[in-house]
Amino acid sequence: MNRTWWSEARLILIAIPIVLWTVIPIYHLLVLSISDKEAMLAGQLWPDKPTLQNFEIVFGQKHYYLRDFWRQFANSAFVALATGVITLTIATFAAFSISRLKAPGGRMIMNLALATYLIPAAFLAIPMYKTMGNYGLLNTQASLILAMVALASPYAIWVLKQASDKLPVELDEAARIDGASTMQLFRLVYVPLMAPSLVAIGIYALLLAWNEYLYAFLLLSSEKDVPLAVALGLFLGADDSPWTVLMATGFIYALPPAAIYYTFRKYMVSGLTAGAVKS
Amino acid sequence: MSISATLPETDVVEGSPAKPWNSNGWVWAVALLVPYVLIFAGFVAYPVMYGLYLGSSLKSYQELFADPAFATAVWNTVLFLGLAVNLKFLLALGLSGFFAQDRWWVRILLVLFILPWAVPSIPTILSFRFMLGTEYGMINTQLFKWFQIDGPDWLNKPSLGFASACMVHIWKSLPFWTLILLTGRLAIAKDLYEAASVDGASRMQQFRHITWPSIATLYLTSTILSTIWTLGDFNSVYLLTGGGPGDKTHVLATLGIRYLRIDKLDLGIAAIITAMPLVLPLVYFMVKRLSRGPEDT
After folding, report:
1. What is the model's pTM?
2. What count of other Cβ atoms lies within 10 Å of the Cβ of residue B191?
3. What CA–CA distances, in Å, run from B142 to A24, B149, B284?
4. Going by CATH, does the domain composed of A68-276 fall within 1.10.3720.10?
5. For residue B6, what pLDDT is reported?
6. Is the CB of A134 inside 8 Å of chain B's CB atoms?
7. Which of A150, B40, B119, B283 could form a disulfide with A118 if both were Cys (CB 3.0 to 4.6 A apart)?
8. Based on the number of CB atoms within 10 Å of its own CB, is B63 exposed (0-12), middle (13-18) or buried (19 or more)?
9. ipTM score for this prediction
10. What is the CATH classification number for the domain harbouring B253?
């Protein structure tokens, strides 16, 4: 009895720093977003007069840095959705082809994709920037979407291939005996069975694109084209940055991915961490 | 010829099961791979080749090595990988043990603990940036309020600025790796621990003889993966310190982008290519590991 009491207390003692460590930066973001300028400069733990004024400024686009807020929000959403849909399509085709149809050269393509997945994206950014210039795609959202698809699909293919390798071969054989064509097999057997992994992968690509900063900042320059992530960085250019408004914008920007992540947490954790590293 | 004609049935069994269907399937197999191959060729292979071509001039390396910011960035990168990654993994190993405890409130805590990973990094890094501000930042203001001491100049001193970037990096990626190690721990059969505690094994002994042998490979693979990715962590440094003050907190990833911004693209490429002797062997090793089917592991 004594021992369990002691071990509970010890667990709680460990839990306190974990909570503080995790929460402080996010709490700080929230506090600033509801602070006025004075409270911000005073570094208060909780503002004397909490205010929603910063959010009003953001939603009403009432600040120089926010004059295109809604447009940038839409840009983020568009780039994320497009990346999600295109990555999912390409990766599902590729995984089906490699895993179920045993495409010639499939193994080599899988290895190339894996290598792409492993190479740090920031390292590919400079040559990618140059390449987009050569293609004449610089400063178009297409360049960002294509770059994100190129970065997201390797992992997508790998996870989907792992998942589809687990489906029994007998399913394909049964479908063939029933006279299903390849595409019928894909549509009627493969996609429905793979649905949970497909959801996880679609969301993975979508969040990757929504959260991306570096590529967006390199490939796009017009303030009307950039997604919110880049718009947030632009605030730093000011000498007297309006941090309270910046944090309110940051909070709004962080909300959709966090909500999506937590809604689909079950899929994400089992679908992605299981695939991420195999023991 | 005559042999294959007399043994048609074995032929079917030995090859792919459904022969007539197969020729059609082969066409589809190739067709469905085409989209990815095009993306790969256009936006991975071509940029990589082009980058290698741009980085093939010896002159840019001479210029790069002469830039004091480069030596600093290399050293910072070594610290980033050597210290930040290992510290992160020691923490993740410990925390995964904590989160493996079967309590309702620990499970709730885990949901909270994932937050840094679930939210985009830009707003939280910027939040850190303001929090660590010398004059108005919450940390220094509170330090002054409670202890009447002037807090340090967090982001304007190279050593502290870089340490802060390491901290931000750990804050952001710790949850992910803790989850991975937790998955590894939870896969260990419970009765091993039960048997061990019946035999009177201490917690330390249980860790050494049960937990560690089961997750050592996972720990190593994860550390290597994280090392490669940490090399590409641009945001934690760039958005926190911008590489400053005086270009003293750059890592290779941010230095490369800095060169690009000042129109010295070939130097940027060269800076990245200097990391390849480390990256390529690790990538090769990981591709070999990860491409093995589940049955081989």
Report:
1. 0.89
2. 9
3. 13, 9, 48
4. yes
5. 35
6. yes
7. B283
8. middle
9. 0.89
10. 1.10.3720.10
